[in-house]
Amino acid sequence: MKIIEPHIHMYARVTDDYENMKKAGYTAVIEPAFWSGTDRSCAGGFFDYFTHLLEFEHGRAKKYGLYHYSFLGVNAKESRHTKIALEVLRGIEKFLDNPNCLGIGEIGFDLITPEEEDIFIKHIELAERRKELVIIHSPHTNKREGIERILKILTEKKCTLKRYVLDHNTEETIGLTLGHPEIVAGITLYPTKVNIERAASIIKQYGAGRILINSSADWGKSYPLNVSEAVQAFPALGLNAKEIEKVAFQNAFDFFSQSPKFKLD
Ligand SMILES: [Zn+2]
Question: Which domains, from first to last, does the chain contain?
């Protein structure tokens, strides 16, 4: 079965991961910009990172037979550096125009502060003006509160919800997210987040219609083949072939295909 990994940080992974993903049936990887482990000291640090993703990482994936697309923005954690974040927002559009960039992300909340909210809203306004796709990160702590706040902002701003993925949902938030029409809900298979068994029961309860599964693999204790492992494990956990195809490929394909730049042969 073909797989799209809709959220992974290959920047922090080794080439063997690309080889193993290709062998396991992955066709494309989507890489949102993240906190790379230390805060950048200037806007130029972000711009160099964006170039790295759009050029070097895209090329590295291609060498191993995988499509690679990026989402760019100031992550929630670094949004507190308001001056730098605003400078990044002033200079980001030429990177968003790049053919390998599908939209804005991952943005959202870390500690849910007014500074984070201000920069999040500015990204959303930019996304609406440019009709960009958006990947939103929900916080690890106070997740429900963060997701409520994100959904309230998207509703108040009358955002086109079909262009948004609200990521890292758990049992506690998935009903809330999917209660909003057309928005897509991400579930992250990560040791500190949701495991394959829990993901299967969420999908059984809420249906496969608007759910994506991802590994969010990065420099932490994470595993880039989690989506593939879930695909193998899901039949025994009660999901049928159609549901599995939807959460591991089709829903991602449909979502990213809203951008004319997204093409798989
Ligand atoms: Zn991430």
Answer: 3-256 (3.20.20.140)
